[in-house]
Amino acid sequence: MQSRNDFKRFPMLDGMEILYAQRHRLDFPDHTHDTFNIALILDQTFSVKLPGKVLHAPVGTLCITNPYEVHATPCEQILGNTFTTFYVAPDVLKSMNAGEAVFFDEKVIYDEWLFSQFLSLSHEALHTASHYESSILKCLALLVKKYANPVRFRSSELRLFREFLDEHSLQSFSLVDTAKKFGMDSFKFLRLFKQETGLTPNRYVLQKRIEAAKGLLLHADNLLEVAVLTGFYDVPHLTREFKKLVGVAPGVYRNS
């Protein structure tokens, strides 16, 4: 049976997004988000690879990754993984912690009541109940109060390499040519860039292109135009890479 994923966006909560993944079998490669990812594990143990360790989240748990944490998610290849992920902007949780940023050291959380509340809210989101925003805010506030560390999460600062690629990531990228601009060979550039970001330059550029495509899809109907503007060869290339990182095809994301 084929896997089925759905995506839903919300104008509330700084544009919160929810991914509904059913029997998802496609691995998510190394990547980061600028949001907190709060996943509800619904079927099969969910695995997350972080630098130096692998986490296993059983059914009925919450699995959280922090903004800008490099991680990968290998999925169960035969039965697939079923989960729902809330993507929540850092400022939303920051507002619940007296204006201070939060960080979750505990990334696999077993809390039966919180899980059931988030699960109920994930179902309500499909119908956008009128009281939805206040309800999700209450759940997030409790999550922060019980499990988040009241300390500032220090992600990597935007340094020269990242600033350069942010400016050029939609253009044709060459590791060799980019390294030459910094007066070094490609191997040294790759090593230093990965030390700074946790990602290879190619993976970082691809992720920036996908983020740009997400923004364009909110207003564009022509997928080929979106593909070309964001540095992909064609629609199949955009679709393949988009689905790897976002979990759904561009058309599904656009229509959500």
Describe the structure.
- The chain is α+β, with helices and mostly antiparallel strands.
- It contains ten helices and ten strands.
- It has helices at 90-94, 112-125, 132-147, 160-168, 175-181, 186-197, 201-217, 223-229, 235-246, 250-254, and strands spanning 4-9, 17-24, 28-31, 36-43, 46-50, 53-57, 62-65, 71-73, 81-88, 108-109.
- A six-stranded antiparallel beta sheet has the order 1-2-9-4-7-10. A two-stranded antiparallel ribbon has the order 3-8.
H/E order of the elements? EEEEEEEEEHEHHHHHHHHH
- Strand segment tally: 10
Strand fraction equals 15-25%
The mean pLDDT is 85
Q: Strands of the largest sheet, in order across it?
A: 1-2-9-4-7-10
What is the rounded Rg? 19 Å
Measured as a percent range, the helix fraction is 40-55%
**Stretches with pLDDT under 50, minimum 5 residues:** 152-158
Tally of separate helices: 10
Principal-axis shape equals globular
What would you call the structural class?
Answer: alpha+beta
State the major sheet: 6 strands, antiparallel
Q: Give the N-terminus to C-terminus distance in angstroms.
A: 23 Å
